[in-house]
């Protein structure tokens, strides 16, 4: 490795070429990481774990409203994996796919698409759970534990191996055979155990965060008379022609009785359309050619959840950011709302973000008095999701028109009750941040172990 004319140059003997002759594979950062790991007691991953794939749904099969969870690539987001929002498959379909299940302490890696290299660990215990073909699972570990492997793959040395071994540009892929050849340094039991303690602590804190958020939801639904609500199975609804003309909807999906029941339950609560509550701005799509390795974050739906913005992988150059920021930078006091992809995810910003939001978002700025965290929770609730579903005719749609979004009705609870809900959300977000800090601590400890030694890593963990 050398530097010439401000360019990083790697000089590789022909005998050391690893079946690849592209310069990208021999970037100095990859070679340095490889050397550091080789200096430790390291093993190929196939010696430490079995690397297996998931399974796609068979042709003509689809998801069910209830059933067995099916973990998708988008459920793997460098964190603990949560199956509650995953789609479901029927018991009959599960029987066809039961050889491709995932379970407690499996470590997952996404292996296809723009989110390639995202890592997750299973910490839930349920009897049945299926896995997409877009993920690899690392199971049956030897010499190391799942918590350490999870932290290693999150670290820059794990991520660099993933970046090095993926192939393709428009639809990158990471082959299982390449994952099996990853080099993993093996620490002693003391460091393994200490990392497990930190990872478990992070999981406990995150569980408490989710409980706090669910408590805010429960409070909201109780006030709306929707606590414990479950749609009935009635599939007959009789309407007059005038009602159909009024809303210009003649399809049976729109007139399902469950929507009437929800509206009836909430009818005693004052409501306003979103259009009467917020000003709206849109995001922007600069095009994939505008992405760069460095620069400011470009926020996509895959980088976003009800808990906020994750550190996504897409960047745009600083010069482009300067051109766009006055119009498309997300600011404190706005609520981000997804209108494309996974529709209706919302989060209230409590600070300005040095980033640009994609065209899949609407930026909502209240023009009347309403608590922003409360508004975000209302938009995330199944009450508002039911309205979106009704607008779409019950289909799983990839796009919600902004003018349709502005028709969503928002229940307006008293200021005091909004504040109570907002306080619970604030607690949930604080705990979420604590959990993320603990994961970062574990990840950094692995990096210190690789760069220095185990004792220094242990001292870092004891801070």
CATH topology of the largest domain: Adenine-n6-DNA-methyltransferase TaqI, Chain A, domain 2
Largest sheet: 5 strands, mixed
How many runs of DSSP E, i.e. beta strands? 23
Which descriptor suits the 3D outline? globular
Features:
463 residues; alpha+beta; Adenine-n6-DNA-methyltransferase TaqI, Chain A, domain 2; 4 domains; four-stranded antiparallel beta sheet; globular
Q: How would you briefly describe this protein structure?
A:
With 463 residues, the protein is α+β, with helices and mostly antiparallel strands. The chain folds into four domains: 1-39, no CATH class; 44-186, DNA methylase specificity domains (Adenine-n6-DNA-methyltransferase TaqI, Chain A, domain 2); 189-214 and 424-463; 215-422, Alpha-Beta Complex (Adenine-n6-DNA-methyltransferase TaqI, Chain A, domain 2), CATH 3.90.220.20.
Write the topology of this structure.
Blueprint: E1 2-4, E2 7-9, H1 28-38, E3 42-44, H2 45-48, E4 50-53, E5 68-71, E6 79-80, E7 88-89, H3 91-97, E8 107-110, E9 119-121, E10 130-131, E11 135-139, H4 146-154, H5 156-165, H6 176-180, E12 183-185, H7 189-223, H8 241-247, H9 257-266, E13 271-273, E14 278-282, E15 296-299, E16 304-305, E17 308-309, E18 315-316, H10 318-328, E19 335-338, E20 346-348, E21 355-357, E22 361-366, H11 372-380, H12 382-391, H13 402-405, E23 409-411, H14 415-451, H15 454-461
Parallel strand pairs: 5-10, 6-9, 15-21
Antiparallel strand pairs: 1-2, 3-12, 4-11, 5-7, 8-9, 8-11, 13-23, 14-22, 15-18, 16-17, 19-20, 19-22
Helix pairs in contact: 1-5, 4-7, 4-14, 7-14, 7-15, 11-14, 14-15
């Amino acid at each position: 490795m050398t530097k010439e004319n401000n360019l990083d140059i790697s000089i590789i003997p022909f005998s050391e070429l690893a079946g690849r002759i592209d310069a990208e594979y021999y970037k100095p950062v990859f070679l340095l990481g490889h050397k550091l790991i080789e200096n430790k007691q390291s093993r190929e991953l196939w010696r430490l774990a079995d690397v297996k794939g998931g399974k796609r749904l068979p042709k003509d099969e689809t998801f069910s409203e209830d059933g067995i969870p099916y973990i998708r690539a988008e459920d793997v987001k460098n964190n603990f994996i949560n199956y509650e929002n995953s789609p479901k498959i029927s018991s009959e379909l599960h029987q066809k796919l039961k050889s491709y299940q995932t379970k407690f302490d499996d470590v997952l890696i996404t292996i296809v698409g723009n989110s390639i290299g995202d890592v997750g660990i299973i910490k839930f215990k349920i009897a049945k759970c299926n896995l997409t073909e877009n993920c690899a699972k690392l199971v049956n570990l030897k010499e190391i534990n799942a918590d350490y492997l999870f932290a290693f793959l999150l670290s820059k040395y794990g991520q660099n191996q993933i970046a090095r071994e993926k192939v393709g540009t428009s639809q990158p892929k990471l082959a299982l055979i390449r994952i099996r050849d990853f080099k993993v340094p093996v620490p002693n039991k003391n460091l393994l155990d200490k990392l497990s303690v930190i990872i478990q602590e992070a999981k406990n804190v995150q569980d408490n965060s989710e409980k706090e958020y669910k408590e805010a939801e429960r409070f909201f639904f109780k006030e709306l008379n929707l606590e414990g609500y479950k749609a009935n199975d009635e599939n007959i609804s009789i309407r007059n022609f005038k009602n159909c003309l009024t809303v210009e909807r003649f399809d049976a999906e729109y007139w399902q009785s469950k929507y009437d029941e929800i509206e009836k339950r909430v009818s005693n609560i004052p409501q306003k359309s979103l259009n009467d509550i917020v000003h709206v701005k849109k995001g922007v799509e600069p095009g994939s050619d505008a992405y760069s390795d460095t620069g400011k974050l470009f926020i996509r739906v895959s980088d976003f959840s009800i808990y906020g913005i994750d550190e996504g992988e897409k960047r745009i150059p600083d010069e482009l950011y300067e051109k766009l920021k006055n119009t498309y930078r997300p600011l404190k006091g706005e609520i981000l709302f997804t209108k494309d992809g996974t529709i209706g995810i919302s989060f209230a910003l409590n600070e300005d973000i040095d980033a640009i939001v994609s065209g899949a978002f609407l930026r909502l700025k209240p023009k009347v008095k309403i608590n922003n965290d409360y508004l975000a929770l209302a938009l995330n609730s199944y009450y508002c999701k039911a309205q979106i579903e009704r607008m779409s005719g019950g289909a799983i749609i990839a796009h919600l028109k902004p003018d349709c979004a502005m028709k969503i009705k928002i229940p307006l609870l008293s200021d005091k009750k909004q504040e109570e809900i907002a306080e619970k959300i604030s607690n949930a977000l604080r705990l979420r941040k604590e959990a993320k800090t603990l994961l970062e601590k574990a990840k950094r400890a692995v990096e210190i172990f690789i760069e220095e030694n185990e004792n220094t890593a242990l001292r870092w963990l004891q801070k």
